[in-house]
């Protein structure tokens, strides 16, 4: 290994650390905003925006209890696995004008796999914690995961396929390519409707990924007292909460990258460092707007569904909507 | 999941979906409930036992504290039982004031329940909004009685506080407020698709089961049984009103006996209560509010009384019934109090049978259980009990030892 | 379950209290030991509502309930128990003819049981809703309900001594339990 590549390697590790910390802070911050907005919509005061940070620090100093009949290495490993896989998604997602750290080596399909890992970790952690509540929660998490994967994959396939038709030479599943050529510009009016349907699908899949109402079925506080997380405490619970916060950023960033990659700087014909700063700020505004619609608004507006109802929603209705989107885009191309 | 074996899931004594301690032992296969065993008794205070050593007026205070939410219903029923037993006439003005308090209590209880039910469904926005709406009536109750709960209004032969001229505009303001807000309440609970999808055909109690299991209140009315003490055997000011038991077919034209129907009944009853309060306020008679204002004299009279009486009242959750037997003694010979949840307890079994785990909280909440009301009879200490649990003394000893260790 | 009519049905026969009492007396000759109609007035309009108090022989109690079931499915509110010292009295609080204004009659049926060996046929097979209250009376007063399935304690702890009945008068064991607890407090 030459000197230069070592320096690049060290720099990359350093950048990864920065991104991880930044992602966590951003995630907790977004959670705080989400809680504040929800409180305002429910006509109450709500916690301060820094509350998720306080929660996190408090959990970190609390005792970490492993139940007697749990399998310790799975039980303790699951939260770490979940957090690591979620943070690693951040390396593949461009933050506005800032390109993804590992943009060249990973694509949307990898992200789809990485998104599944926290859910699998949660299932493993739930089953290993040796509580009936957690077992029921883990079963539900599995069912839910199997239900929302299909619509999610439909979106990815459609976008990649359409891009491939337009620019056959590109690496079509790379996020950079997808962001550079947003779907809206590639299609006609019929395809536009199709793209809208796909966006809708993604918005509805997000609450399940983040396990918030109406799809917080695996945790369902009033039914299962926390479900998969019922036995988790202290550091492990803090890690799961971090996972969730980071995942919120990931899902929002993904939505932005796929559907709203536009920048604001060209409008004001800015360039150079100033443009990057403005675009980055604009990216965060987009992020929070997306979080508001994907998470806050939905969870304030509806009641929790049952697992069979949620399954039907995803496997039948949402898949149908996703496929309809695909159909529209296909028809748009053929016509 | 056809081959999965049933496993046991306990809900309670303490669980987020229960507002009060009570144990349900479920046997569950997959997501389906196969059987349920109810084990109440975690909340025993031995109130009837305590009542043996208290005179009638002291028991009013006990009755009031059977439950915080029905804190007008139990004293209402108890006072009526004593009045029936001793033949005491209540002045008309007191009867009207009693009914106003009881109906205001119903409004707050039903809205409180609506919020809890929404929370059980994971619909917290509705919880916050409905409890905000409830504050109006709580404030009014505080203005009239001086307390948000445990109103201290009821006395044998009348009420302890009058409704003054100055309070009447304030009560009218509340009536107008609820008339305004009622439409919103109906929209949120009866027309919201996500509430409907979780509550329709869930926790069904058939007409026959409602009769067989002797269920009471909105639980039985939602199954189509037109049973309401205010209608069947009117008392106090209810006798002057034309009250019809509210069944869900008034709203939808059909009776399913599910959780949704129970929501309908309660929501419609809020409006009914508002109308009753308005009527009572418009027709409030003049006159005394107590048949015997001197408590010492009242107690002396009661000491001479002999006889037995039943007092019934339609509480927000259903019929409250108190039985009192007086036998020329300082204390009543028998005092039996029964809260509505006591009778509705058994209706959980058919409701929960074959439901999903996710339905447990809303089905349990749908009868508006009041465990504190129901568990009221016993002593909790027993010899064998002590062997399992550390006694107070042992705990104190441990605590002292620990303090000493830390001081060293 | 022969008369599970919809309440408020037009074809339902409503009895007035005298009618109900004579119906019971006709069908249960010499089993009604005592009877009394207690009518009270309510409201400004002074309309009447009625309580009927009857005492029936222990052996005939079940028949009384069956008779009521021919009229309308009776609603059982609760059983009030009373340990008088000589006997254990159970007062079954029924209500019947519900569904319409002022038609309902409260029927309070008293049954007197032998204090040494209190036992009565269970009615929880006729009215399943009576199960809870029968179980409570069984725990609190030690009345044996013949035909009631043997289930765990409903209000008392599962391991409560089987020979102590808290609501019986002069219950020794109970006092001792309380005594022990209060002595524990003093130390």
Task: Give a verbal description of the structure.
The complex is a heterotrimer of chains A (335), B (408) and C (187). By secondary structure, chain A is an all-alpha fold. Chain A has one domain. Chain A has helices at residues 3-41, 51-61, 72-90, 108-128, 132-166, 175-180, 183-186, 189-209, 221-224, 234-259, 272-301, 307-334. Chain A is globular and about 60 Å long. Chain B is an alpha+beta fold and 408 residues long. Chain B has two domains: 7-41 and 377-407, no CATH class; 56-371, Cytochrome-c3 Hydrogenase, chain B, CATH 1.10.645. Chain B has 19 helices and eight strands. The N and C termini of chain B lie far apart (60 Å). The relative contact order of chain B is 0.18. Chain C is an alpha/beta fold and 187 residues long. Chain C has one domain (17-175): Beta Polymerase, domain 2 (2-Layer Sandwich), CATH 3.30.460. Chain C has a five-stranded mixed beta sheet with strand order 1-2-5-4-3. Chain C has a two-stranded parallel ribbon with strand order 6-7. The longest helix of chain C is centred in the last third of the chain and has 15 residues, at 172-186. Chains B and C meet through helix 8, helix 10, strand 6, strand 7 and strand 8 of B and strand 1, strand 2, strand 3, strand 4 and strand 5 of C.
Name some characteristics of this structure.
heterotrimer, A: 335 residues, mainly alpha, globular, C: 187 residues, alpha/beta, Beta Polymerase, domain 2, five-stranded mixed sheet, two-stranded parallel sheet, 7 strands, 26% helix, 30% strand
Biggest sheet strand order of chain B reads 1-2-3
Instruction: Output the structural class of chain B.
Output: alpha+beta
Q: Measured on Cα atoms, how large is the radius of gyration of chain C?
A: 19 Å
Strand percentage of chain B lies at 5-15%
Number of helices, counting only DSSP H or I runs of 4 residues or more of chain C: 4
Low-confidence stretches of chain B: 376-392
Strand portion of chain C: 25-35%
Give the count of helical stretches of chain B: 19
Summarize the structure.
With 335 residues, chain A is mainly α. Helices cover 73% and strands 0% of the residues of chain A. Chain A has one domain.
């Amino acid at each position: 290994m030459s000197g230069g590549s070592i320096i690049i390697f060290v720099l990359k590790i350093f950048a990864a650390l920065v991104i991880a910390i930044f992602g966590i802070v951003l995630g907790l911050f977004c959670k705080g905003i989400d809680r504040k907005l929800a409180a305002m919509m429910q006509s109450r005061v709500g916690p301060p925006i820094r509350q998720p940070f306080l929660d996190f620090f408090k959990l970190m100093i609390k005792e970490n209890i492993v139940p007697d009949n749990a399998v310790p290495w799975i039980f303790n490993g699951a939260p770490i696995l979940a957090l690591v896989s979620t943070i690693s998604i951040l390396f593949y997602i461009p933050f506005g004008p800032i390109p993804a750290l590992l943009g060249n080596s990973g694509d949307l399909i990898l992200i789809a796999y990485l998104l599944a890992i926290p859910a699998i970790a949660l299932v493993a952690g739930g089953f290993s914690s040796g509580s009936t509540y957690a077992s029921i929660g883990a079963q539900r998490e599995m069912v839910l995961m199997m239900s929302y994967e299909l619509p999610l994959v439909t979106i990815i396939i459609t976008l990649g396929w359409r891009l491939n038709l337009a620019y056959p030479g590109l690496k079509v599943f790379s996020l950079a390519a997808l962001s550079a050529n947003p779907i809206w510009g590639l299609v006609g009016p019929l395809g536009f409707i199709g793209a809208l349907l796909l966006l809708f699908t993604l918005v509805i899949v997000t609450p399940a990924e983040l396990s918030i109402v109406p799809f917080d079925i695996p945790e369902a506080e009033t039914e299962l007292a926390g479900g998969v997380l019922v036995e988790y405490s202290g550091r492990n619970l803090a890690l799961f909460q971090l996972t969730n916060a980071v995942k919120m950023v990931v899902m929002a960033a993904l939505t932005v990258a796929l559907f709203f990659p536009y920048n604001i700087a060209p409008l004001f014909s800015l360039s150079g460092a100033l443009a990057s700063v403005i675009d980055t700020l604009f990216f965060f505004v987009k992020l929070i707007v997306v979080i508001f619609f994907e998470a806050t608004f939905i969870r304030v507006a509806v009641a929790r569904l049952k697992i069979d109802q949620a399954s039907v929603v995803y496997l039948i209705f949402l898949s149908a909507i996703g496929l309809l989107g695909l159909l529209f885009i296909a028809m748009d191309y053929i016509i | 999941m056809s081959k999965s074996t049933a496993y046991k899931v306990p809900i309670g004594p303490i669980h987020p979906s229960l507002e009060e301690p009570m144990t349900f032992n479920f046997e569950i296969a997959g997501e389906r409930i196969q059987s349920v065993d109810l084990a109440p008794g975690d909340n025993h205070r031995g109130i009837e036992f305590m009542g043996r050593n208290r005179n009638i007026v002291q028991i009013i205070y006990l009755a009031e504290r059977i439950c915080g939410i029905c804190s007008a219903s139990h004293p209402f029923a108890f006072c009526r039982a004593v009045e029936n037993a001793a033949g005491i006439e209540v002045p008309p003005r007191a009867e009207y004031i009693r009914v106003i308090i009881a109906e205001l209590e119903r409004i707050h209880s039903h809205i409180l329940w609506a919020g809890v039910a929404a929370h059980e469904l994971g619909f917290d926005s509705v919880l916050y909004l409905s409890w905000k709406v409830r504050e109006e009536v709580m404030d009014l109750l505080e203005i009239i009685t001086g307390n948000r709960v445990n109103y201290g209004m009821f006395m044998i032969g009348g009420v302890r506080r009058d409704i003054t001229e100055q309070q009447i505009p304030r009560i009218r303001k509340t009536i107008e407020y609820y008339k305004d807000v009622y439409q919103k309440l109906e929209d949120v609970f009866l027309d919201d698709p996500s509430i409907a999808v979780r509550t329709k055909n869930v926790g069904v109690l058939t007409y026959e089961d409602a009769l067989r299991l002797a269920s009471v209140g909105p639980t039985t009315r939602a199954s189509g049984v037109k049973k309401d003490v205010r209608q069947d055997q009117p008392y106090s000011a209810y006798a002057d009103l034309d009250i019809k038991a509210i069944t869900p077919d008034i709203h939808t034209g059909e009776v399913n006996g599910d959780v949704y129907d129970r929501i309908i009944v309660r929501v419609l009853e809020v409006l009914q209560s508002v109308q009753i309060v308005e009527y009572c306020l418009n027709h409030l008679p003049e006159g005394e509010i107590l048949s015997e204002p001197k408590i010492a004299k009242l107690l002396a009279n009661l000491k001479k009384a002999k006889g037995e009486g039943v007092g019934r009242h339609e509480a927000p959750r259903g019929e409250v019934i108190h039985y009192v037997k007086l036998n020329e003694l300082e204390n009543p010979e028998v005092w039996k109090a029964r809260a509505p949840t006591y009778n509705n307890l058994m209706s959980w079994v058919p409701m929960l049978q074959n439901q999903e785990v996710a339905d447990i909280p809303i089905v349990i909440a749908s009868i508006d259980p009041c465990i504190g009301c129901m568990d009221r009879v016993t002593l909790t200490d027993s010899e064998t009990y002590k062997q399992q649990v550390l006694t107070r003394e042992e705990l104190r000893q441990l605590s002292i030892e620990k303090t000493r260790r830390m001081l060293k | 379950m022969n008369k599970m009519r919809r309440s408020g049905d037009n074809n339902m026969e409503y009895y007035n209290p005298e009618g109900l009492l004579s119906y019971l007396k006709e069908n249960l000759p010499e089993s009604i030991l005592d009877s009394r109609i207690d009518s009270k007035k309510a409201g400004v309009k002074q309309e009447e509502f009625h309580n009927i108090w009857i005492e029936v022989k222990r052996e005939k109690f079940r028949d009384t309930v069956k008779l009521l079931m021919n009229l309308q499915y009776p609603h059982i509110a609760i059983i009030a128990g009373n340990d008088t010292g000589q006997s254990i009295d159970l007062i079954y609080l029924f209500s019947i003819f519900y569904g319409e204004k002022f038609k309902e009659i409260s029927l309070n049926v008293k049954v007197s049981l032998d204090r040494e060996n209190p036992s009565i046929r269970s009615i929880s097979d006729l009215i399943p809703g009576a199960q809870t209250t029968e179980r409570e009376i069984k725990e609190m007063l030690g009345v044996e309900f013949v035909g009631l399935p043997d289930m765990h304690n409903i209000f008392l702890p599962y391991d409560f001594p089987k020979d102590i009945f808290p609501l019986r008068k002069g219950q020794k064991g109970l006092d001792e339990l309380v005594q022990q607890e209060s002595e524990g407090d003093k130390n």
